[in-house]
Design a protein that fits this description.
It is built from twelve helices and no strands. By secondary structure, the protein is mostly helical. The protein has three domains: 130 residues; 142 residues; 39 residues, no CATH class.
Length: 318
């Protein structure tokens, strides 16, 4: 049932994407309203899939339940991650559009949502089991929620930054095209984008902080030096610089838009690194195979831990 609801949501998002793109080419007053309605219907189906999946695991709002939500699976996969981010982004856009009426942003959000969810459901990725010690971790639940909300805000800010850059280019060329005629004022785009950056920066800060707590609970280390953590910290540092430059030096316009684009690209690199990392199940299998090989060769425990290369040099015991 949960998978069916996700497919219904995907169809609604695809319909909204078509309507918004048609509106860009042939503007009609009713098209944005239809696109918003389809996005809202898709979001309702998406959220319902989360509820169904939580009910399947007993309704417990545990970290494991959050990881399984909307997919009917007991393992964490890449598709789940992208589906959660897509739902958060659509919800953020609808809330934003309710106040500012930005259909041009919908023409970015709807196709992006489809582009994210379709590969996530087609490409099979390895399962990543949740550490049993984190099954009811409040830090993990907070980490997932903060990362999803922060990423959604920054994705919307990224879209508005692209809109700003495109509009500014047409304005400077003194040859405004069809896109420029559908844009709100660049001042409004800049102001809304800035607010999204602030919320995204807050969400990313909370995600990094709670991620450190999760890492400590799982491994005992506060921070693990891995590509996904590195990209996230770089994105956070760039956004912190942007916030400082905006508040202190009064940066606006093109420079801010370019930094937002760069920051989001770095954040996307964090997710790519996360998906490129070996699934936890595969890592555990390799570790178990190494341990069993060491036991067969009769190496002392300390040598097995500190000198794994000795496994290839030590002759097999008689």
């Amino acid at each position: 049932m949960a998978t069916l609801l996700v497919h219904i949501a995907l169809l609604a998002y695809a319909g909204a994407a078509v309507i918004f793109l048609v509106w860009l080419a042939r503007p009609r007053d009713r098209l944005p309203s239809w696109g918003r309605a389809l996005l809202a219907a898709g979001l309702l189906a998406h959220l319902a899939s989360f509820g169904v999946a939580l009910a399947q695991v007993g309704g417990s709002p545990s970290a494991a339940g959050l990881a399984r939500a909307g997919f009917g699976s007991l393992a964490w996969r890449g598709g789940q991650l992208f589906s959660l981010l897509a739902a958060a982004t659509v919800a953020g856009y609808l809330a934003l559009d309710l106040r500012y009426r930005l259909p041009v942003a919908g023409a970015f959000v709807a196709p992006l949502t489809v582009a994210v969810m379709v590969p996530a459901h087609i490409v099979q990725s390895g399962a990543r089991a949740i550490n049993p010690g984190l099954a009811h971790s409040a830090a993990l639940a907070a980490h997932v929620v903060a990362a999803a909300l922060g990423t959604a805000a920054l994705a919307l800010a990224f879209g508005l930054a692209l809109v700003y850059l495109a509009g500014e280019r047409q304005l400077k060329a003194k040859q405004p095209g069809r896109l420029f005629a559908r844009l709100p004022s660049l001042e409004l785009v800049d102001r809304v984008g800035w607010r999204l950056v602030v919320w995204g920066f807050i969400g990313l800060s909370v995600a990094i902080g709670t991620g450190s707590l999760v890492s400590r609970e799982a491994t005992g280390a506060v921070f693990i030096f891995a590509p996904k953590e590195g990209f996230a910290v770089l994105a956070w540092g760039l956004l912190a610089t942007l916030v400082q430059a905006r508040l202190v030096a009064g940066w606006r316009g093109r420079r801010v838009a370019l930094l937002v684009v760069a920051g989001f690209v770095l954040l996307a690199g964090s997710y790519v690194a996360l998906l490129a990392s070996a699934p936890s199940g595969a890592a555990s299998e390799r570790k178990n195979a190494l341990t069993q090989g060491a036991l067969r060769k009769g190496l002392p425990f300390r040598e097995r831990a500190l000198f794994p290369s000795a496994l290839r040099r030590t002759p097999r015991a008689a």
